[in-house]
Amino acid sequence: MATLDEARSAKAALREKVVGLAGVIGVGVAPEFTTSLGQPPREYPTRAQARPASGGSPVEVLTEEVSVEQVTGPGGSWVLQVNVTDPALVDKVPEEIGDVAVRVRVVGAVRAG
Q: How far apart are CA 78 and CA 7, in angstroms?
């Protein structure tokens, strides 16, 4: 389990390890959600609908400030997250930097196979 400060400190080291991998499109810090599937969903503050200036789809916007504790829960932990466009990159990203876990997400357009 890593604190927000520990995860932020480890982020630079993770960037150095993935800098040469084509298909890595994002490196960041994210809350580690460990709620079991049997638990009810976490309650979030009020959200409002906003329409982008470009006329695209409505987006949800938080209408009140959210504290770190509200996102992670008491004693919540943080992880590093790497977004990649190619599933083959998952095994090339380290599982951990120091004591901070690394989560890899494959993102991008969904294509029919």
A: 6
Question: What secondary structure does DSSP assign to 11-65, as a single string?
Answer: HHHHHHHHTT-TTEEEEEEEEE----TTSPPPP---EEEE--TTS---EEEESS-
Two tokens, residue 77: 């932990």
| pLDDT > 50? residue 37 | no
Give the chain's domain count: 1
- What CATH number does residue 90 fall under? 3.30.300
Identify whether 85 is part of a domain: yes
What radius of gyration do the chain's Cα atoms show? 17
Q: What percent of the chain has pLDDT above 90? A: 40
Question: How many C-beta atoms lie closer than 10 Å to residue 34's C-beta?
Answer: 11
